[in-house]
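Before the break, one more example. Copy the sequence into your notebook; we will annotate it together after we see the structure.
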Amino acid sequence: MAPQTYSRPPQLRVRGVWSLFHPWWLLRSTRKIGPKTRSKMKAAGQTQKPAGTTRTGTLLPRGALEYGKQTGLDVVTVNPALVFGPLLQPTLNTSCQFLVYFLKGGPDQMRNKLWHIVDVRDTADALLLVYEAPEASGRHICAPHFISARDLLDLLKSMYTEYPFMSKESICDMDHPAPMTSDKLKKLGWKARPLKETIADTVEFCKNAGFLEDVEGSPCRFPDVYNKI
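Here is what the structure looks like once it is written out:
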C-alpha cells in the first residue's frame, strides 16, 4: 500500500501507511493541544489524529524510535482493541460489521474468542491524553472491556428483541487467553464509558444509517479477517 503524507505543519510532517491492525504511533513535540482545541474537537465529534501523529502497521518500533531521536520527538503508542461506536463515515467499517453480524446472523462461523472492545470516542480521548501528558511514554493498551463471543451474543439478546441474531451453534469453542489491561492509560486519568453504552450507541447509529436493513440477495457476512487473528 502506498505511503500517505498527512497535511500538517512542515516541522511536524511525518509519513505513514494505513493498515487494518495497528498501533497508533504518536510522534510528540513540546507543542500541546490547549483546552480550547480539545473542546472544539469534542464538540465536533472529531476523532482525527492530533498534529504530530502517524498511524502505521509497517513502521517498526526501532525505526520509529530512531526517527524520534533524529527529530527530537517523543515516540508514544496507543494500541486500541476492537473499536465500536458511532461512525463519521457513510459506509460500514469492518469492526461495526462484526457487531452487525451478531444482530443479523448469516452463514458464517466464528470462534468463541475473548474480544477486547473500546469505544472510538474513548480511543480519541486516549490519543489526546498521551499526546498532552508529559509522563506518558511507551506503549498504552486501549482495551477497557473484554467479553467472549457467546457472552456478547447473550448481552445483545438481553438488550434487543427485534433482531434475528446469529445462532450460538455457529460459534466454535476455543481457549481464552488472559485479558489485556489498560491500567497504564487509567493511571494517566483515562476513563472509558460502559460497554453497554458503547454497544447501544453503535447499534443506534447502524440502525439510523440503514446498516441493519436486509439486502435481497446479499446475506450478512462475518468479516473473515477476525477469524485469522
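Confidence is low (pLDDT under 50) at residues 1-22, 44-59. Helices lie at 35-43, 61-71, 94-104, 120-132, 149-159, 183-187, 195-208. Try to locate both features in your own notes.
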